[in-house]
Every structure is written in C-alpha cells, then in structure tokens.
Write a structure and sequence with these properties.
2 domains, six-stranded mixed beta sheet, Diaminopimelate Epimerase, Chain A, domain 1, 300 residues, alpha/beta, inorganic pyrophosphatase (n-terminal core)
Length: 300
C-alpha cells in the first residue's frame, strides 16, 4: 500500500535516471492511489517483477516484505540491489544501502540526484515535493527542521506547486474512504491512554472501499486530546491484520512494531500480523501498554 513518499520517490528517481540516459522501469506491487494521478509518470508504473533489468533500486522499503509481490529471492540475489530508505528499522537488505535519518525518502533521492547531471524539472520536483509533504503531513511533524523547509523551497523554485500538490493530495477523498472512516470513527474506543479502532473486511466491502482507504485515519486519531498512542487495525484481503501505530511526543512505538515483524519510526510505525482480528488487536494493545509502562520509568 504505497504512500506519497514511496510513489514520489519512485517517480522522481525514475525520471531522473531517464534524463541520464538509463532505461528505467518503475514498478510497484500494489495499485497506486488515484490521488497521485497528477504526477508525470503515474501511468507508467507497472506491477511486474524485475526481468531483464541489471540493477534493482528500492525506495522507501524498510525490508523486503515491503517490496511485496515484486520480491523474488533468486532475482534479488543475482542482481545488484540498491536500498534507499529513511526508516530507522531498515534491515539493510541491499548490496548498497543509502539510509538517512530524514523525514522522507524523497529528500534522500533529491540529495542523490543533485550532484549528477540532472536538471530537476517541474515533473521531478513535483514528485519529490509530494513525497516530502505527505510524510511530514504538510511539514507539520516533529522531525521537520529548517532543512526540510529549504528543500521544499528548492523544489518549488524548480517548478513544483505546493498549493496544487496539497490540494490534490489532501483535499480529494473518494466517497468510499469517507464511508469507511465514518464507520471506523463510530467504533473508536480508548484503553488507558491508547485510542484505537478497527476495519474488518465486511466494513471495507460494505463501503466499496479497499484496505488502503483506511490510511490516514490513524494520524487523525493521534490528534485526540488525552492520549499517547493511536492505533488503527485493518483486515487485509489476505486475512492478515495491519496495525498502524502513531505516538505522541516522547514515546517510541518501534519496539512494538518490531516485536510483530514490522518497523517504522519512533512516532509512526506499523506491522502486519497473521491471526484473527480480535486476537491480533489484543496482543498489539497489550504490547503497547507494556511499552508505555517501560518508557514511563525510562523516558525516551
């Protein structure tokens, strides 16, 4: 379920490589959300595994599971793999690992292509600015510094429109997503200082939605006053349960995500777990409670 940083980094790097005369295939295992259809290169993204390509570059993937159905162990072992990512939980699965502790992968891509003979045109700039603003919630997350503001200004100077991108990305929601959010919000519960809700396949089907339509809701729940952690549980098409976890300042939820085979950032992590929704929910909530208790005695 690619987000704006994954798609923006993919397109931005792909267009830059083509400028350098490279034959470049842009691929993503899951359907690209329609809200990014304004980006040049959107319609060129395919969903096949690497074939004749000599080098594999992954962007915004903390581990090979995030590559999804495009990952083939044999192919990845036979090719040079360049892993570009900003997640602190990255497993360093590449032959070359370009990892930076930055708010978005798009910033890493921008830093890589600037010294090259690449003209950052409006198409590349728009893709990379989309990645930056989606992973920082319009430059509002706690890890934003003057560096991100300077990068945004540089991309705007190159032709990206912050106004247009924010309008298209944040102010266009399909009816199915609004329906799904409405049902999920009606079922919001709190447990101590944790706020959570869930979306099962029945609810998703009733709204004519997809599991991806639930993305973003956890950030909204995290804005609730009087809570430290927000969680949204989503039942995927394959029956597994995805838990998206967000934390307030001073808390670290990566240990919980790692415990269940996931990863992410201290305040924004997630995992996908096999099992019944109710069982997974209770296990994850219990792990969060334990983590909060431990961190209360030893502040992060």
């Amino acid at each position: 379920m690619p987000d704006g940083d994954a798609i923006g980094s993919l397109i931005g790097l792909g267009l830059a490589l083509r400028q350098l005369g490279k034959r470049c295939t842009m691929a993503c295992a899951d359907p690209v959300p329609a809200k990014f259809d304004f980006l040049s290169g959107f319609s060129e993204i395919i969903d096949r595994q690497p074939d004749q390509e000599q080098v594999i570059v992954t962007v915004d993937c903390s581990d090979t599971e995030r590559v999804g159905a495009l990952f083939d162990p044999t192919t990845f072992s036979e090719r040079t793999v360049i892993n570009i990512d900003h997640h602190v939980t990255n497993t360093r699965f590449g032959d070359v690992n370009v990892l930076r502790d930055l708010p978005s992968t798009a910033e890493i891509v921008y830093a890589l292509i600037r010294p090259m003979d690449v003209q950052v045109d409006p198409d590349i700039a728009s893709a990379l600015l989309t990645g930056l603003i989606t992973d920082t919630r319009c430059l509002r997350t706690g890890n934003v510094t003057t560096k991100q503001l300077r990068t945004a200004i540089s991309l705007m100077t190159a032709g990206a429109s912050l106004t247009e991108i924010t309008e298209l990305v944040f102010n266009r929601e399909p009816i199915a997503r609004i329906c799904l959010w409405g049902q999920a919000l009606a079922n919001v519960q709190t447990r101590g200082r944790i706020i959570w809700t869930e979306m099962d396949r029945r609810m998703i089907s009733k709204c004519g939605a997809s599991p991806d339509d639930g993305s973003g809701l956890v950030s909204f729940l995290a804005s609730a006053m009087g809570v430290d952690v927000a969680v949204v549980f989503r039942e995927q098409d394959d029956g597994r349960i995805e838990a998206s976890i967000r934390a307030g300042p001073g808390w670290d939820v990566t240990p919980v995500a790692l415990q269940f085979g996931g990863g992410g950032h201290p305040r924004a992590s997630g995992c996908t777990v096999s099992g019944k929704l109710g069982n997974v929910r209770e296990r994850v909530l219990a792990a969060i409670e334990t983590a909060l208790q431990e961190q209360q005695s030893t502040p992060v």
